[in-house]
Write a structure and sequence with these properties.
The complex is a heterodimer.
Chain A (H helix, E strand, L loop, with lengths): L1 H11 L9 H15 L2 H4 L78 H8 L10 H10 L1 H7 L12 H13 L6
Chain B lengths: L1 E4 L2 E4 L8 H8 L18 E4 L2 E4 L12 E2 L1 H4 L7 H8 L9 H14 L5 H8 L9 H15 L3
Antiparallel strand pairs in B: 1-2, 3-4, 3-5
Helix pairs in contact in B: 3-6
The chains are: A mainly alpha, B alpha+beta.
Chain lengths: ~190, ~150
């Protein structure tokens, strides 16, 4: 059954169904990590810390979000300054840095469980393949997140003045499916 | 497009991507919200959309959903909002340019968080810049307004 699910997953992401070797799975993971560890992802996958990051812009390594914002427990800053004060919910506005990005979803930080700012490849790999540690996502759930999240879509097309992770949404979704089909190898 | 500002409905003929701040100031003559930076870095243009503080320089007219409140609609000289009254009590303003944004931010903040900590006040207000440096009075006024709103 698991093999069938994987085959369907790969088919759904445009990859022809075949046996995926561990080596191919590891290669896919390396590409996944290259994107997931990019500041466009890690700036918001910051865990329990209250401040988003502003890396990958022009402020240098280790820069935290300006204006003293705190996402707080709500993860949307409801206890102090909501993200939406500046991050307008709107579709199709290609806002250049340093103005606040806009997407068609309420701006917010990733769930605390999905903290991987500064995490190494093996640790992140072990986290992402474990639904008990990745906010309940199986491989299909991870693929769906990548393909449907306005945050991920924006991350690969963040507008002028912001660096982009390597690849595309489609590449990353296909790699996650491949990695899953190979048994989610981490080393 | 139609929009409701301070309880009054307006119809304006503007481009879809005109910032709300321009609509308010140039089309409707509502000049309480101020232009400072145009990139959500200073807070001078802060208004409420359905009660939530929003930088009106960032919100395109075509994306507006909800009723807009500006400083002109928050209170009146005869019946000031608790935040406005606290601002007067503490004589917060110096040049005054940023103050409508400061007050709108504070009013929305206290509506969401009626009993804030000092750290939360600082976090809530730190996106609103004041070149005169009235921050200590802003913080004191927010604390006073919070107490009044709680009936203490």
């Amino acid at each position: 059954m698991r093999g069938l699910v994987c085959a369907l997953l790969i088919a759904g992401t445009g990859v022809s169904a075949q046996t995926v070797t561990r080596e191919e799975g590891m290669a896919a993971w390396e590409r996944i990590f290259a994107a997931a560890s990019h500041p466009r992802c890690t700036n918001c996958h910051v865990g329990a810390q209250e401040e988003p990051m502003w890396e990958g812009l022009s402020y240098g390594t280790g820069a935290v979000h300006g204006m003293g914002v705190k996402a707080d427990e709500s993860r949307i800053g409801a206890e102090s300054m909501p993200c939406r004060a500046c991050h307008i919910t709107a579709a199709g506005r290609d806002v250049a840095s340093p103005a606040a990005p806009q997407i068609d979803e309420a701006w917010q930080l990733a769930p605390v469980e999905l903290d991987w700012l500064g995490t190494d490849s093996a640790t992140l790999c072990a986290m992402l393949r474990d639904p008990d540690r990745n906010d309940g996502h199986d491989i299909a759930g991870l693929v769906e997140h990548l393909e449907s999240s306005p945050f991920v879509a924006w991350g690969f097309a963040p507008g002028p003045g912001r660096s982009k992770p390597p690849g595309s949404v489609e590449d990353m979704a296909r790699d996650v499916a491949l990695w899953g089909a190979a048994g989610s190898p981490c080393e | 497009m139609k929009l409701t500002v301070n309880g009054k409905e307006h119809e304006v003929d503007v481009e879809d991507d005109m910032p709300l701040l321009w609509v308010l100031r140039d089309e409707l003559g509502i000049t309480g919200p101020k232009y400072g930076c145009g990139i959500a870095q200073c807070g001078a243009c802060t208004v409420h959309v359905d009660g939530i503080a929003v930088r009106s320089c960032q919100l395109a007219a075509g994306d507006l959903e909800g009723e807009v409140t500006t400083i002109e609609g928050l209170g009146t000289p005869e019946a000031m909002h608790a935040v406005q009254a606290a601002w007067v009590e503490h004589q917060v303003a110096q040049c005054g340019y940023c103050q409508s944004g400061q007050i709108m931010q504070a009013a929305s903040f206290l509506d969401l968080n009626a009993a804030p900590t000092d750290d939360q006040i600082d976090a809530a207000m730190s996106g609103n810049l004041c070149r005169c440096g009235s921050y200590p009075r802003i913080r004191a006024a927010v604390k006073t307004a919070a107490r009044r709103l709680q009936g203490v």
